[in-house]
Amino acid sequence: MGLEESRIMKELISKEEQLLENNIRNDANRLAEIIDDHCIEFTPSGKQNSYRTGAQFEMSSGVSYIDSNTVNLIDLAEDCKLLLYVTVKVNKNVRMKSNCSSVWKEIGGNWKIVFHQGTNSSE
Fold this sequence. Notes:
This protein is of the alpha+beta class.
């Protein structure tokens, strides 16, 4: 992986990690910096959500983090990347993993998420 790809991957992981933090999830302005106005998400339950500018996300209970050993960045186009990773959520001594995929697009010099899917994993 070249220096530019490595820099982009670090930036996208950082933004994904921000989306796991309640203080960011509760800040419509910060979310708007990360999420495209037309972003679509498929939740672990299979529900489809469309992001609306100014919206906030539900508060998350427990602690969530990205397993850095699982991150993979796939180049779809110069301005479009697919980020694959596993998140781990720990809440009341219960640990749950989710396989995640996000499509990121560079818009006006800023990387924004345009699609996300999280699927709960048994391991």
